[in-house]
Structures are given as C-alpha cells and as structure tokens.
Write a structure and sequence with these properties.
Helix content is 52%, strand content 10%. By secondary structure, the protein is of the alpha+beta class. Among the domains are: 75 residues; 151 residues, Jelly Rolls, CATH 2.60.120.10. Strands 2-6-4-5 form a four-stranded antiparallel β-sheet. Strands 1-7-3 form a three-stranded antiparallel β-sheet. It is rod-shaped, with a radius of gyration of 41 Å. The termini are far apart. The relative contact order is 0.07.
Length: 364
C-alpha cells in the first residue's frame, strides 16, 4: 500500500512512463469526433438547447466508435463510446416525447399567445387551466342563444374565441362581446361559490362563434387549490368587467356632448323609465293649461267678453316652460346630489329588479 502511494505521489514530478511516442497522428475520425464534442458542449439551456447538446454529443460519440473500430482497434474505446452515444440518443427520444406531449390544439395555442403569454403565465400553469375545461371548444350558430334572461342558470364561465355575441336585456341592446373576452364575467362575480342564480341578460350569437367553458364547480376547486391561478382569474375578470362598463358608459351622453358616468348612484332615476311614466300626465297638464288660451273669443259669453282683462301676473311668476324643453334640459346637479344611495336603492327595490341600464336611453 505504501509503495503504491509513493508511486502516485511521484507521478506528477516524473516524466512520462511511455517508452516511446508515436510519430504519426490519429486519423481524421478522431479529430472530427473531438471537434463535434467541442461544439456539443457549447449548447445552451432549455428544450432546444438540450436538442443541440445531445444531438452533437451523440454524433461525436458515434465518430469515436468508428475511430476505435478502424484506427485504435480498442474494444474499451468502442464500448464506452457506444454507451455514451446510446445515452444521447435516448435523451433525444425523451425530448421529442416531451414536445409532443406539450403540444396544444391550435385554438388553445393561439389563446395562450394572445391572452396569457403577455402576462408571462407559465405554460405548465396554462395547461392546468386548459385541463379544467377538458380542452373542448364549443360552437354557437348564428342567432343561437347562449343564455336567456331569467331562465338560464349560471353554472359555468365561458370565454369567446371567435365570432361576436350580442348582449341585450328586455329586447334592448347593451353591448357586444368580442373574441378573447369573457361572456358571463359579471354573472360569475355576482355569485359566491355556494350561491346559485340565473342570467339577467340574453346573449345571442350574431355570427358563428366558438368558445371554451369552465364548469363552475371544477373552476372553483382549481382556484381554491392554486393561489396564483386565482389571482390570475381575478385580474382577467376585473379587466373584462371594466371593459363592459366602459362600453355601457359610451351609450349615455346628452345631445350637447356631455357624457354621463354610469357609476353615479342616481343616474338610473334621471335617465331610467321613471321619466317616460310621468310623460302623459305632464302632457295632459300642459294641454289643460294651453286649452283656455287657444279657445276663440266668440265662444265666450257676452258678459265674459265685456269683463275687463285680468291684471298681468306678478313679475316673479315664471311663465310655463314648454314640455319639449323640460325633457331636453340638462339634469340638475342638485337633484343628483339630493338623492342618497340608500334612497335610490329603496326606490329601485320598490319597483322590483332594476335592469343593468335604463330602458329608455336619451335620443342622439
């Protein structure tokens, strides 16, 4: 044991133990194998970097097998080079299998690049989201109804992939749903996981549409299990609902260009269906006021004709305003401020269920 240790310690300080050096160089296969191995070890990371690495290493070790067979004539070189070449080949097969398993359908791949990749969502996380909807793409024909107001239960969350969907309530158009927007995000956010409800709007396909749908229970389980996915859906749904609110807000503007804000608590009572209900009564009162003035003097009795005219009303009395000007006047800010949100809520609840927007919008 001591002799072996002394020999090992003296090897670095002694010259080579070879009796004689070969004067000729190795063949071209040996140098080609080393050059290819050098290129292989310069590979990068990731899936395609592994393809580069194991591809060049497998080719280099194959050249080493040929060199050991034709030039070196050494069995150990052939065996070790063959083993390393087979290992690289198995790694390439594994990478091909992983890429095939990671391949998504065309619709889901486009959805990932459009909606999730800009948010830097990992592909594995996206696969869990897609697996929750079972990778099924559903279709809607033209004028086919996705949900009916007051009838269809809220049991899923759907995202439009292609086409255009019209949203209406009581026959009145509200807004459109365009590709890569949620079709029922307000309904989803309006209910707790343990609650049930029905749609308050009707969704109809204006063109041939395709969409994906997550079952409500399965999606709630996924959101409860993964906090990152829960925050991701919360962000996407919040942005989608704000886009729908801005689309509704663009509908309310007066003739002189003033845009109303749908977030005002009493805007519904200014532009809502309460104004048209009072229209016939005000019109009747205006007709009663104007009827004596429009009657001819011949129809009056003689005594009434000889009666001196009544004195003019005091200057403080304002003349009646024509009904058309009353309807087209700008809403008074004092009226808007005088009604508290609690009073507005009580007035809405006394009428039943308030729609998402006023039934009668101002004329353009």
């Amino acid at each position: 044991m001591s002799a072996n240790s002394s020999t090992v310690s003296q090897l670095p300080w002694q010259g080579p133990v070879c009796v004689g050096w070969r004067q000729d160089l190795e063949g071209a296969l040996y140098h080609l194998a080393n050059c290819i191995l050098l290129l292989g070890f310069m590979g990068g990371s990731g899936v395609y970097g592994c393809f580069y690495l194991f591809g060049f290493l497998g080719t280099g070790y194959s050249c080493c097998v040929l060199w050991g067979w034709f030039n070196a004539c050494s069995l150990d070189i052939i065996l070790w080079s063959s083993l390393l070449a087979v290992a690289c080949l198995l790694q390439l097969v594994h990478l091909v299998y992983r890429l095939r398993d990671d391949t998504l359908p065309k619709e889901f791949d486009l959805l990932y690049k459009t909606l999730y990749l800009p948010l830097q969502v990992p592909l594995q996380t996206y696969k869990e989201i897609v697996h929750c909807c079972q990778q099924q793409v559903l279709a809607l024909a033209t004028e086919q109804t996705y949900a009916v107001e007051g009838e269809t239960p809220i049991n899923c969350l759907s995202l439009l992939l292609a086409g255009r969907v019209r949203v209406s309530q009581d026959g009145q158009f509200l807004h459109y749903v365009f590709p890569y927007q949620f079709m029922d995000s307000p309904e989803w956010e309006s209910l707790q996981p343990s609650e049930e409800g029905v749609f308050q709007v009707t969704l109809t396909a204006e063109t041939t549409c395709s969409y994906i749908s997550w079952p409500r229970k399965s999606l709630h389980v996924l959101l409860a299990k993964d906090r990152y996915i829960s925050r991701l859906f919360s962000t996407l749904l919040g942005y989608d609902i704000s886009e729908k609110l801005y689309a509704l807000n663009d509908k309310f503007f007066a003739k002189f260009g003033l845009r109303f804000d749908i977030r005002l608590p009493s805007l519904y009572h200014v532009l809502g269906p309460a104004a048209p209900d009072a229209g016939p009564e005000s019109k009747k009162n205006d007709e009663e006021v104007c009827e004596p003035a429009m009657s001819s003097p011949q129809a009056l009795p003689t005594s009434a004709q000889k009666t001196p005219p009544c004195p003019p009303p005091p200057a403080a009395t304002n003349p009646p305003v024509p009904p058309s000007q009353v309807r087209m006047s700008r809403p008074n800010s004092g009226i808007l401020a005088s009604q508290t949100p609690l009073q507005s809520y009580r007035q809405v609840m006394s009428k039943g269920q308030a729609p998402l927007v006023p039934t009668h919008t101002p004329e353009l």
